[in-house]
Specification:
six-stranded mixed sheet, six-stranded parallel sheet, DNA-binding, homodimer, 14 helices, Rossmann fold, alpha/beta, elongated
Amino acid sequence: MVSIRDVAKHAGVAISTVSKVLHNYPNISEDTRTKVNTAIRELGYIPNSIASALSSKNSGRIAFLMDPKRQTQAIDQVFMQYLLGAIDCAKEMDLDAVTLFFSMLEGMDVAAMTRYFLAQNITGIVIFGMTKSDSTIMELVETGAFSCVLIDVPYTNEKTSSISIDHRKAQYDVARETILDNIPKLEKGHGPQKILYISGNETGYVTAPRLEGMKSLAEELKLDITIENGHFSEKNARELTLKYGSDKDVIVCASDLMAIGAMNALIDMDVFHPVCGFDGITLMGYVGKQMNTVKQDFYSIAHHAVEELSRLMQGETGREILMPHSLVRMYYKDIII
Amino acid sequence: MVSIRDVAKHAGVAISTVSKVLHNYPNISEDTRTKVNTAIRELGYIPNSIASALSSKNSGRIAFLMDPKRQTQAIDQVFMQYLLGAIDCAKEMDLDAVTLFFSMLEGMDVAAMTRYFLAQNITGIVIFGMTKSDSTIMELVETGAFSCVLIDVPYTNEKTSSISIDHRKAQYDVARETILDNIPKLEKGHGPQKILYISGNETGYVTAPRLEGMKSLAEELKLDITIENGHFSEKNARELTLKYGSDKDVIVCASDLMAIGAMNALIDMDVFHPVCGFDGITLMGYVGKQMNTVKQDFYSIAHHAVEELSRLMQGETGREILMPHSLVRMYYKDIII
DNA sequence: CTGTTAGCGCGTTCAA
DNA sequence: TTGAACGCGCTAACAG
């Protein structure tokens, strides 16, 4: 293995000079800089990130913390997209990244978690899929011991940024579009539209804003709205739809998975009402009907999250970032790959 | 951060003694061993894996190398299950693991890849989703510079093990079951059964064994078999089924995704013939019909892969490992979560 | 502008 | 059975 020492020798300079060139320090003559760079190229030198992490305080080592198990399998796609975006960005920014699951932290208190991360020289963490019941992890974030970026959790402090779409507006938008598509019915003297809103679990941070978005739309359009908690579960959404859905004009679901459940319930009942979802996962198409949904670009969100984390680790202060969302209509034919 | 030095001081012994206790060296008196262990517990000491990796040769650092992008999104589930199993096991075995994508290695030759891993003190690699076109990675494996475990690639050497199910037998089994379910038709004087086999891409290592399994079944049951290459694509399978499927008794697909394509083509043509798939992904259910498939436990495969890698890194020699598969029948109702 | 040096936390001889 | 001391590859003062 070729080390920094070899490069120094090859270039006829001191080790520290190589290090300085590597990190773009000022006060290096153009001459030695090129000398060192050619030596690096000739030897195919790659800095040892482990040694670097050990030696410096700002190791540039980060962790992706997620909880894929708690989710249904159908949601794997979301986490995979997160991971792809995050890991790609980490590589681009030359950050060492490890992927961790919530389950590994189970039973630890804040102090233990802190030691755990410190023992790996981790100084920054991106957290995907945290809910209100992950209180110890939230405590850890609050300590400010690590730079953190939270996905879909609206909390910030000096060392913590949050990043998400505007769930309130997104829910409003997709429900509005779906309902207005359906306006003709309304005009046939149908009275106020009857809506079934299947919300997510109350432990989810996105649940309240999405519900708010729906409520304000309901007020605006004077909708007759029934709100039920589907716990982000396809099965629950299915049952709720069987129970309350038959006489509704539109069914609005706070997730694609629940939208699938609702859609299938309607198919079983042999009625059809518009359904809309949230997330924009590919899976959608398989119900064989079309529906509107809020499309989030998880890859891009994760990519930005890592960029933001890097910013935090350089001493910038935490902030809230809103990403754009879009509305899409998914058909079966579209998703044929 | 509490270091080994603190533990040594707290226990009143030398640093090296603590290290020896940590690694279960012999020749440590029971007395000092407990003294050290209580000190560790009292201080909540966690060894710094970075320092350890730097200091020792056998760092215990491993990489998960996969290629999720090349796959269709619907396959994310498989990779997520792999990752879950692998990361869980790595944690259990106290191995530091990083997740890498093939794309990061693009353009590198073997020497560059070697340096790349060495620069991260990585000594073991688990590779998921490699195809015959990833020749440079295969070269890397062949050098024996790293301990490797290959998933679904039948290659072994001194430092490389392979792990997979028996694809030949699995394909045989699932096709056989699906066809025999259909035997009544045959007995109504229907002549030899007509089968459409939609195979995978020839760059896939699993394609040939699956095809073999199908061929030997065809011979055994004297089937009239048509073989087409679906390239593991839903769309291709759909088109092939539209073209060749209408007069077939059974359609056998080398992946679930292709089975979905085939199933949907049949639905469009308004005919129904049994279809079987391969993999056992949850997604299946959404076609709304039932079908047989080979279920692989990806989590478990990955878990075993990491165990095997650990074995290799301890100097054991490479070998081939076969995992069990099972046959399942998937219905829509089953997958409601 | 460049080189010398002291650690980072730990594993591992080699003496004691 | 234990401990002192060196080195892993690198960063970061500090001298020069």
